[in-house]
Records
---
Amino acid sequence: YPGNWCWRPCPWAAFGTWFVWQWAQPIPYNYGTTVVYRDNYVYIEEKQVATTEEYYQQAVTVTQSTPADIDESKVEWMPLGVFAVTEEDATDTGMMVQLAVSKEGIIAGTFYNEITDTSRPVEGMVDRETQRAAWKFADGKNADIVMETGISNLTKDDSTALIHFGP
């Protein structure tokens, strides 16, 4: 790949047609505003969609839905970027995630913790119907932790995401 390949921006106009599914319009996910946890239920646009445990399990299912018949040598990747992982209103946690996505919706990347100077591989998938992108650690440690966001959120400079620390 050419120099700075992984650092280039990824706008929705190029991104929506990258997938084999050819989405015309993004589905936005704004955690804390349009996606809200209330009374052990998850609401999207004020509509109750699942219990908190069901919503977590949906994210786990997305991470496990990687197609089995993929020839890894022929997978094409689009870099999504490097993202800081912080709590709302925090300035810096020293945690970052670098992500790329394949035309089939497979997510791969690396989580890096600057404070401990450790990196870990991440893997996941994009759900075709909901455009939810979910990934987890690929090294088998902290298996209950799943991070998710809308795939279109990853085309923005600043966005929200949700980290599940288990059911």
---
Amino acid sequence: MRSKIFAFLICCYSLAGWSQNHSFVYEFLSLPRSSLAAGLGGNQIATPEKDLSLSLHNPALLSGDYHHQLSLSYMNYVADIHVGSAIYARKINDLSAWMTAVRYLDYGHIPGMDIHGNSTGAIAARDMAISGGYSFLMTDYLRGGINANFIYSVLDEYSSLGMSVDLGLYYFNEEKLFWAGLTAKNLGSQFKAYQDSYERLPWDIQLGISKKLEHAPFRFSLTTERLWEWGLTELKWHEQILRHCILGVEFLPSEAFHLHVGYNVRRRVDLSIEQRNLLNGLSAGCSFSVKQVRIGLAYASYHLSGNSLSFSISTPLNHFSL
């Protein structure tokens, strides 16, 4: 078992030798697909929360608990840019499960113009990923998972194809109310570029932990992203560390109703301007159950031009006799 974990870590951290070029393609793969993750700062890879869409954040969060379950999500990203996903999962046996998912991003109405300023009609611009995932129980406290993603993107007359995989580990200790996750995301490449130049996928290495208080309805989380990116000489060491951190707090008064707040340090720094910085980096959300239907809502700001609202719904299909 230790050899499997060691091999996973070597696979992840060997990527740190890649170029520190920040120009990536298929950035839509990094957007939150869960309203819970959106409300907790944009990412969550270590949580006991029963949210199937979180398996797109950490494939090891998939389990047999989601047997015959469907999850749908939608986010109004910026202006008329729309983001959505659909996920379906099934249990294989007591140790493993699989899921399939579709993710998309539609850039909305983009008017086309020729060199003389004449209208040529609307430009098609959208991204899509079709995914298949598998998770397996490695020990009584550790689960592993993998997602494979086929990616398609079209920008007017140009199109691109790519493939990637996401690897994940999830540690859970219910007795100590502690959970941890480790992921390596978007490992792959384009095999058909828009033109002649091939670009890197937005690969990332992430580590997260969650801890619930024993005698109070609060759960705290810390998620670290872009662990390969260091050496920003213009920043002090503590500023570099904080730029990798997402902090989250959940209020859990009951199983049927949750509130959560997140703070993304990098987003606050990137969006801060003198005229507007009060809510930069902050996000919030809630989730509640109506019978066996789970509904989630979240608010966040990803761009200075506007705020984003996320909505998700999940339910076991056998509840509807399907």
---
Amino acid sequence: MQESNAFCDKGSVVTGTPEASLTYGYYPGCSAHATAQEYDASVKAVFGALGLKLVEIEDWNCCGASSAHNLSHNLSVGLPARNLALIEQSGLETVAPCAACYNRLRVAQEEIAAHPDEFGWLGEALGGPLQGNAVVRSPISIMVEDVGLERIAAHVKRPLMGLKVVSYYGCLLARPRSISELADTEHPYELDDIMRTLGAEPLTWSYAVDCCGGSLSISRSDVARRMTQTIVDAARATGAHAIITACPLCQTNLEMRQSGKGQAKMPALYFTEAMGLAFDLPDTDKWWKKHLVNPRPMLSKLGLVA
């Protein structure tokens, strides 16, 4: 099992293999320090294994997802705008692994560009006008467009043969269409391509971009539970062993709110966790222990872990 020297503290660099050639900014968002620590760790480990560098954006703040945009339009733009200013100062294309953060940053950028007069107050609040040249990307885009499937395949040491999955993007990576990096926002295929490259079998289904109800988790948990269960039932009907996602809110909601209905609950894996397993990286067990539905029993049954 190869060791990876991936790490990322504030302002530090994730160093990878000698093939390192690309450096990105890193906006972890609040979830990475709380409910999605396994996503944060797996993103850093996979980027490091591929020789990519991550530099965490200094002094970043919450993007306001799930709260600010329901309370104050100015706050919903102002919070991500401050992060956009920091990203501009860094001069780096920046990875936002959380789908909610990614969405809020890109939506705010689009709104500011479309309505400069409405947000003229931002210049004074931020100590200077935004230049509008911040580049915010999802890790899915980095893997498919910058790394490429061929390079991913070259790092696979433990093919995920026998693992059947459905790829779940949720709504925030696909909507609004104007901010999405997905080639087809109605029928995305990027995660399927990555899973296939890892040796897993991506299955066809109709719920890849449906909302899981994450934003209703507190205000209408009954609705969120119903929406989540519909997605899990559809995944189970395909014969999938797991749901693959890239959104902390979706991942938590899918594992927390599903009913087993007499069956073992279905795990929701971050796509970078699947990559880490296929790359035979250390610490995958530490990631799984943070799940509400531990995927180890399922992976063990398939012979993918001891």
---
Amino acid sequence: MWDETARETMTLDDTDIDLLLAAIAPANGARALFANAAAHPALARWRGRIDCVQPWKPAGDALAKQGVRVIDAPEGPYDIAFVRLQRQRQRHLGDLARALEALAPGGKLAVCGPNALGAARLEDDLGAMGVVGKARAKSKCRLIVATRPPALDLARWTELDAPRFDTALGAWTAPGIFAWDRIDPGTELLLANLPPLAGRIADLGAGWGALTRALSGGIDAYEADGRALDCLRKNAPSANPIWHDVTTGLTGGPYDAIVSNLPFHDPRGENRMLAEKFARTAKAALAPSGAFHAVANAHLPYEQTLDAVFARV
């Protein structure tokens, strides 16, 4: 069991991606996959022969800006696969299994992550899937390089992070999505205090749609996690799902009302600037008489920003 509490305030650097992409050199004509990908100068060495899977919009945008091909799912067979460890265990295991599934027999796999994310389990995880690799520890990270065996049975692993209908929630959800197995207390608090809303409405950081589905009409639901947005499409079919990085501004508006359970995490750890950026984005997208209805964790330093950008708080 991973200690989620200990990881709550963790922020990581990019040492793991440096190690990962240096682990296997490009070979002539070799095709590569990069799961949980991130932009990096080393990707230029692959000269268009690497496919990157990244459902997180800011990271996907950075990859596209670098000129790298970003895809929704592996399109194997590949000769080489790189897998960067995810914060959420089930999502990571799903990534790892799909990478192995897409790798040609005899192909090379490299997987790496920080020790703070549980990288010590990587060897055991690979072993459970039937793969034996060579491990190396450096700079508080763990790297494993392995060869794919001729035959693997990965079906139960690839389904670990698959979308599923949660009867308790009455909604589609998937591991790795924010509050994927519950209604977040902040969302409950916001819903209990929302006045009747009318006109054009947006939900910022909509997740699987806990807020969006409770509001009527064609709400614009902005979400950076593409997998969360896939669930939202099923949970709130009348909404307009928008895969988007809210911190860059909104694609629609002006809005009469904007709602948000303000985030303070991105895929690499705590990011307290997100709440401030969401608030500024909301203000810029509101109609002159519009209102922003938000909830945030008590420790977030958001009051000064709200007082500065809104006429009344």
